[in-house]
C-alpha cells in the first residue's frame, strides 16, 4: 500500500470511529409527571417545596388566579407570598385582551418550571379553562414534566371529581381534569360539612375512593402515585378514603413537617 492510500484509509477509519463515539443515546429519559396539592391555601413553605420539585435554581413559577376571576387581591397576595423567595413569580390572567397579550397561553405556560392554581370557584374555573383550551395546555405541561400544584380549587382541578362549594346552597360534585384518577376532598377538617359528605359520596358509589387533605397538609404525586406527604404542623394530615366491605376506611399517611 502506498503512503497516500495509507493516509486516506487512516483518516477514514479515525473519522468513522469518532462518529461512532459521538452517537447520541437513542433511549429518551422518561419525564416524571409531578403534582403537589394542599387542602387549603398555598403557604410560602409549600411554594418553596414546589420550587424544590422543579430541580432548578430560581425557577419560574406561574400563578393561575382563574378561580377568583383574576382578582387583584389574589394576585397581590401571590406576589407578597413570593417576595422573599428565590423564585421568579409570574401571573397568567385569563381575563385578557388580544391587544394586551401577544403570546399564546400555551407559549407562556409551557415556558414555566411550575404552575400553581389558586383557590376560588372550581366550577367556573373549569368552564373558562375549557373555553380557552387551558385544560389541553396543562396536560401538555404535565406530560412535559412541569410541576403542577395548588390548593382548594387548585387541588380539586387535578382529580376526576370531588366536593365543591361552587354552587348555591350546598356542597356539590365537580368534575376535574382527571390527571389523578381518584376523587378528592380539600378542607377536610377545616369545614364541617366536607368530611361527612365525602364519606357519604364514596359509600354510595357516586365518588371513587380518593384523597382527603387538611388545609395545612400537602401530597406530592409522581406519576399518579403518592410520593410524599408534608404538613405545616402536627395536627394537619392527608388521608386515603376508600370503601372496604361496605364501610368507609380512612388511612392516614405518614408525613414530614416542613421547617
UniProtKB/TrEMBL annotation:
Keyword Hydrolase: yes
Top-level taxon of origin: Bacteria
Transferase in keyword set: no
Keywords: Hydrolase, Protease, Serine protease
One Pfam family, short name: Peptidase_S51
Family, similarity comment: Belongs to the peptidase S51 family.
Protein's recorded name: Peptidase E
Source organism of this protein record: Dyadobacter subterraneus
Lineage of the species this protein comes from: Bacteria, Pseudomonadati, Bacteroidota, Cytophagia, Cytophagales
